[in-house]
Design brief:
- This protein has two domains: 49 residues; 29 residues.
- It is mainly α and 80 residues long.
- 80% of the residues lie in helices and 0% in strands.
- 1% of the residues are buried.
- The longest helix has 24 residues.
- The termini are far apart.
- Helix 1 packs antiparallel against helix 2.
- It is elongated and about 65 Å long.
Length: 80
């Protein structure tokens, strides 16, 4: 079984559990809806082909943030 197939099966099982809990009254309709939306978002992010990992995105953000601070500092403090 490939990683994508495993992911699809896992998301199917999550939706199945949400449905069963909703059907038996363990969770309310609006709570089930929110849970399904969360599963959909996770599935969308995990299956997107151009997404990198969260950590990579975080490091890139911090790197760009430092570069921007250096530029601002150079603009305001390095003027003669």
């Amino acid at each position: 079984m490939t990683n994508i197939e495993e992911l699809m099966e896992a998301y199917y099982l999550e939706r199945k559990v949400i449905f069963e809990y909703e059907h038996t009254g363990r969770i309310a309709l609006n709570e089930a809806k929110k849970l399904r939306q969360t599963v959909n978002l996770l599935e969308e992010y995990a299956l997107a082909s151009d997404h990198r990992s969260f950590l990579y995105d975080l490091f890139e953000f911090r790197k760009k943030e430092k570069e921007n601070k250096k530029r601002v500092s150079a603009l305001f403090f390095d003027q003669k």
